[in-house]
Amino acid sequence: MRKGARIVRQGQRRVLRIDDTFASTYEPGRVTTGSVWDAIACGILAVSSKRRRRVLLLGLGGGSAARIVRALAPEAVIVGVELSADVVRLAQEHLDLDALGLDVRVGDAREVVRSERARYDAIFEDVFVGSGRNAYKPEGLPHPLLEEAKALLRPGGVIVSNALDEAGAVRRAMTDLFSNVVEIGLKEFDNRIYVGSDARLTARDLRRAVAEDAVLGETLSQLRFRSR
User: What does pTM read for this prediction?
Assistant: First the structure.
C-alpha cells in the first residue's frame, strides 16, 4: 500500500489521508464536503447542463470531487484517474466510490492524457505529490500537461486546476491557454482553483451559477470568485 494511506473515522465522516495529506472526505448521505473539493467542482457549472456529457478527473483520490460532479452531471461519462491502486481500493471499501459509476483508471495522469483519444467537456486537474504542507505539483505541471489536456477539450469546454504553492505558475499557464479564467478561493484554505475556458466565463456568472445550484449553493458563503 502507498505509504501512510489510511482511513480515519470522525463520527459519520470518513477521511482519506495519504502520507499525512488530507486527500478526501466523505459523509454518507451527503454530497458536498465543506472543503476544497466543493470549490473544485464549481467548474462544472461553467458548462451548460446539456453539454456535461464527458468529464475527466485527474487525481481522483477518494472521489470527493467526483461525487459532486456526478450529482451535477448525472448522465455524464466520468473518467477518474488515480495513480495508486491501493487508494482506489480504500475508496471502494470505505468511501462508496463504486456507487458513483465512474470509469476508474489506475495510472499516471500525465501518461493518460498523452495517450487519450476521447474528447471531454470538462477536465479537472487535482494532482499532487509530497505530503501534508509539503504537497506540490509533480514534474510536467502546469507545463506541458495543461496544454496537452486542452487538446482533449471539446469546443467551449473547461479545465479546472487546483493549486497550492504553484498558484502563480498555474494562473499564468491558464491565462496563456484560455481567453477567460476565474480564480476561486476558499475560506481557511490556501488552495486556489482556476477555471479556464474560451467560452464566456466571468466570476460574476460563475458565482451566480453556484448561488442558484441546489447542490453547491450551501457552500457559496465560503467561496471567493475573481476574474483573471
Answer: 0.96
